Every structure is written in C-alpha cells, then in structure tokens.
C-alpha cells in the first residue's frame, strides 16, 4: 500500500466562472390580425426595443448594452412567432466579438420558432470577429409547414488592418419536424484552409441569405450567379430540397457584402401570406 501525504499533494483549483450568461426572449402573438409582443425580455448585453410597426408586422431592435461576446460569455436569444404573426428582428449596430479574460470560447446561440402562417425575418447587422476573439455561433430554427423565414447572417473577419479572430458557425433548420438545412463553417486561426482558394480566397467578408417560403414548393427560384470582376464580390443562389433557397456570398468588405446580399434578396420572388394581402 502506498500512502500519500495530503499536505504535499498538488492543490486542485477549479477555474472561476468567467463571462456573462444571458438569455433574451421575444414572443410575437396575434391580436385581431395585428402582431403584438407579449414577451420582450432583454438580459445581459441584450436590450430590446420596440420599433414602429409596419402594417401588421411587429419590429424589434436588439441593442448591445455592453461589450459582448467576450471569451467565456454564454449568450442566447430565443424568438417565437406564433400562428399568423409577422416578426422582424434587427440590431442597432454590428456585433463585435473580442478577446476575453479567458481563453475559453464565447457562445452565441439563436433559437427561432415560427408557427403556421407566421413569418419571421432575422436581419441583424454583421458580426465582426476581432483579432484574438474565439466565438461559436449557432442558429437553430424550427418552422411549421406553412411558416416563412428570411434569415441573413454576415461575418467580417477582423477589423481594418488586423487579422481575423476565430469563429465557428452552425445553422440547423427544421421544417415540419424534418431537417431542411444543416451546415457548419469555420474561419480564422486554426481552421484548415479557411483562407484558401476553395473557401474565402482572400476575402474578409462572408455571409448567407436563407429564404423559406411554401410558395417555392411548385416554383422554386432557379440557380443564379451574382458578382463583379474576379477578386471582388461573388454569390450563388441555389434552391434547396424543400421550399427554400440559399445564397452564399463572399466580398472584400462588409459594405460590398451587404450590397450583394441585398441584390440577391431583390431577385428572390416574394409571396404574401394569406390574411395579409
């Protein structure tokens, strides 16, 4: 038997809890044909503001109340569009991911639920991944069979004159309980080949636009290419195996990326949900 002198044993210390843990919640409900917001609960860095409605659509702006996400932060937004509602979510400014007090990654999870005959538009400002940042971002979307969705996500890899931070993203979309889209991407230090010709090819801005619309069941938009001269902006719009289209774009900077995605969005047919003609 070997005896251990506890006085000489190495001290085991648990890492202190570092970072902000916060969840913001938004719920849109139908009240006589007008979308209302019975739940608008900000938390941590998320301050939620009602914007002026547009027709029957409720609009919410997400305002950053503090610097976030930083290393170790655990951030989450939950938004639900109940049956027959229209909800538009945006942000007041770009989200800036920064190095934190710990090497642990920050997480930023977005969960969207859209019920029958409801429409949700997730159109925030871009994410900027500053040098030294480490972020894991995810979107999980659950759609009813007759739900509509417009989702835009943009990443700017590094501020002007600095290298990119690290960001890993995951997008999962389920429609009527079945997976419509599941994909992952990773950029920045430690991500194999992220800046090579098969991925970003030297570009520092990338983004996607996903449009889900039951009207695409019988008439999906065709494959389309968008872009300028070689080395500038490029995007491809492709139909998915379901009533949806996905555009993926790269550009030298965030301004040209947004313009390109706006051009793509204008090329996608829009349908009007029943009851909102």
TrEMBL record:
GO terms for molecular function: nickel cation binding. The keyword Coiled coil does not apply. One of its GO terms (cellular component) is cytoplasm. It is found in: Cytoplasm. InterPro entries: UreD. The keyword Chaperone applies. Pfam families: UreD. Keywords: Chaperone, Cytoplasm, Nickel insertion. Required for maturation of urease via the functional incorporation of the urease nickel metallocenter. Belongs to the UreD family. UreD, UreF and UreG form a complex that acts as a GTP-hydrolysis-dependent molecular chaperone, activating the urease apoprotein by helping to assemble the nickel containing metallocenter of UreC. The UreE protein probably delivers the nickel. This is Urease accessory protein UreD. It comes from Streptomyces kasugaensis. The lineage of its organism: Bacteria, Bacillati, Actinomycetota, Actinomycetes, Kitasatosporales.
């Amino acid at each position: 038997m070997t005896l251990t002198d506890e006085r000489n044993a190495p001290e085991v210390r648990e890492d202190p809890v570092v970072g902000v843990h916060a969840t913001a919640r938004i719920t849109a409900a139908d009240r006589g044909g007008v979308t209302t917001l019975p739940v608008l609960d900000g938390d941590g860095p998320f301050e939620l503001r009602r914007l002026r409605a547009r027709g029957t659509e409720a609009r919410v702006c997400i305002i950053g109340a503090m610097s976030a996400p930083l290393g170790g932060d655990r951030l989450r937004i939950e938004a639900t569009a109940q049956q027959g509602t229209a909800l538009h979510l945006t942000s007041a400014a770009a989200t800036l991911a920064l190095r934190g007090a710990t090497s642990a990654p920050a997480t930023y999870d977005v969960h969207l639920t859209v019920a029958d005959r409801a429409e949700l538009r997730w159109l925030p400002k871009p994410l900027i991944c500053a040098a030294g940042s480490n972020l894991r971002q995810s979107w999980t979307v659950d759609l009813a069979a007759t739900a509509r969705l417009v989702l835009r996500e943009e990443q700017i890899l590094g501020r002007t004159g600095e290298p990119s931070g690290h960001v890993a993203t995951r997008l999962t979309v389920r429609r009527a309980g079945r997976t419509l889209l599941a994909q992952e991407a990773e950029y920045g230090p430690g991500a194999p080949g992220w800046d090579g010709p098969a991925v970003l090819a030297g570009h520092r801005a990338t983004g996607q636009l996903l449009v889900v619309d039951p009207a695409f069941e019988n008439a999906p938009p065709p494959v389309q290419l968008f872009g300028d001269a070689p080395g500038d902006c490029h995007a491809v719009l492709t139909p998915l195996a379901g009533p949806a289209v996905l555009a993926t774009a790269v550009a030298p900077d965030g301004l040209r990326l947004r313009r390109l995605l706006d051009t793509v969005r204008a090329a996608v047919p829009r349908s009007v949900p029943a009851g909102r003609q």
